[in-house]
Amino acid sequence: MQLYNFFNSSTSYRVRIAMALKGLDYTHQGINLRQGEQSSADYVALNPAKSVPLLVEDDGRSLSQSLAIIQYLDDRFPSVRLIPDDIELKARVLEVAYLIACDMHPVNNLRILGHLTKELEVTDQQKADWYKRWIGEGCAALESLLCRAGSGIYCFGDTPTLADCCLVPQVANALRFGCDLSGYPRMMAVYEHCLQHSVFKKAAPSEQPDYVD
Ligand SMILES: N[C@@H](CCC(=O)N[C@@H](CS)C(=O)NCC(=O)O)C(=O)O
C-alpha cells in the first residue's frame, strides 16, 4: 500500500496513527501542501479532491477521505478494531470523530485559511482569530463529550479508537497555531497519554520522511 500524505497534515496524521495501531506497513508518498502539490495535474488525476491523505492499493485502487480510509482498513484488517462493534460505543466514537472531522477541521483547512488571506485579504491577526474561534467552539464541545465518556486513559476507556486517531492530530494542530488549550483538561490528558504511546510517536509529523522543521 502507498499513502500519499504530508507530514503536517492532520488528516494524514489520523490515517498514519490508524495504520500504526494496526501494524500496517505502507510506502510514504509525500505531497507537499506548502508547494501546492495537491493541485498538480498528476495528483488531481489520482485524487480529484486535491487533498491528502490518499491510500493506493498495490493493484492501483485508490481511496481518499481519512475517515473512509480508516473505516476501510478497520474492516479489512479487523484484528485491532478502531471502530467498536458495540452499537452504543460505536455511536459515541463516531460522534467524537465527526465533531473533529466534520465540524472543526474543515473551517480551518489550508485552502480556507488561504482564501481568507488571498481573496478576502484579512490580516494575520484576523486569520488567527478565525482559527482560534473555531478551535475554541470545537474543543468546548469535545471536552463535554469526553467528560461524559468517563475518565479512561483514551477517549473511550483503555483502548485507542478512531476518536483518538482524530483527537491527537487536531490538538497538535491547535498547539502549532498557538491556541491556549488549558481549559480542556480531559482532552489534554488524552492527548498527553497518546503521545507517550510508541505507536502514536511513530505516526507523529516529526517522524515522517518529508518532515522539515
Ligand atoms: N475530509 C478530508 C479532508 C482532507 C484535507 O482537506 N486534507 C488537507 C490536509 S489536513 C489538505 O489536503 N488540504 C489541502 C488544501 O486545503 O489545499 C479527509 O478527511 O481526508
UniProtKB/TrEMBL annotation:
Q: Which PROSITE patterns match?
A: GST_CTER, GST_NTER
Pfam families from the xrefs?
GST_N (PF02798)
What are the residue boundaries of the GST N-terminal domain, all occurrences included?
1-81
InterPro entries cross-referenced by the UniProt entry:
Glutathione-S-Trfase_C-like, Glutathione-S-Trfase_C_sf, Glutathione_S-Trfase, Glutathione_S-Trfase_N, GST_Zeta, GST_Zeta_C, GST_Zeta_N, Thioredoxin-like_sf
Task: Cite the entry's keywords alphabetically.
Answer: Isomerase
The cross-references to Gene3D superfamilies, in alphabetical order and at most eight, read: 1.20.1050.10, Glutaredoxin
Q: Which GO terms describe its molecular function?
A: maleylacetoacetate isomerase activity
Q: Where is the GST C-terminal domain?
A: 86-213
Instruction: Give its E.C. classification number.
Output: 5.2.1.2
Q: Which domain of life is it from?
A: Bacteria
Q: What does the similarity note say?
A: Belongs to the GST superfamily. Zeta family.
The cross-references to NCBIfam families, in alphabetical order and at most eight, read: maiA
Q: What is this protein called?
A: Maleylacetoacetate isomerase
Tell me the gene name.
maiA
